[in-house]
Design goal:
CATH architecture of the largest domain: Orthogonal Bundle
Structural class: alpha+beta
Radius of gyration: 19 Å
CATH topology of the largest domain: Arc Repressor Mutant, subunit A
Helix content: 40-55%
Strand order of the largest sheet: 1-3-2
Strand content: 15-25%
Number of strands: 5
Shape: elongated
CATH superfamily of the largest domain: Winged helix-like DNA-binding domain superfamily/Winged helix DNA-binding domain
């Protein structure tokens, strides 16, 4: 996946409504949902939904198809997996298997964020 495509996908997901749409479509699976139903579920007007759906489509995260008079939107699972692969390509020192969802629960200290200590304005030390 090219860096510009990754940036476009992440930018598209960096908005609350679009993230909700994408997660809903991922959950729904390949059959997808009609645009009107997505709008109803998220209480969004048609023009707003059109804008957000187009942003996700241009970013390669969803696809659309016409069925009769409806446009059905589905998650682009290949695009989603390509994005995840790009983001985890060099995970944990080049061991991407440690970053997989099944390995996440068993990911050792080598992948866990390291605790750091910062000093606040009042000179108190806080571990984060």
């Amino acid at each position: 996946m090219k860096k510009l495509s990754v940036i476009a996908a992440l930018a598209a997901l960096a908005q609350e409504t679009r993230l909700d749409i994408f997660r809903m479509l991922v959950q729904k699976g390949p059959e997808g949902l009609p645009a009107g139903e997505i709008g109803t579920r998220l209480a969004q007007p048609s023009p707003t939904m059109s804008f957000h759906l187009n942003q996700l489509r241009f970013a390669g995260l969803i696809t659309s198809r016409r069925e009769s008079r409806s446009i059905i939107y589905s998650a682009n699972f290949k695009g989603m997996n390509d994005l995840l692969s790009y983001l985890t390509e060099n995970c944990c020192g080049g061991q991407p298997e440690l970053c997989s969802p099944t390995a996440a629960s068993g990911c050792g200290s080598e992948c866990a964020p390291q605790a750091t200590t910062i000093t606040t304005k009042k000179n108190r030390r806080v571990s984060v």
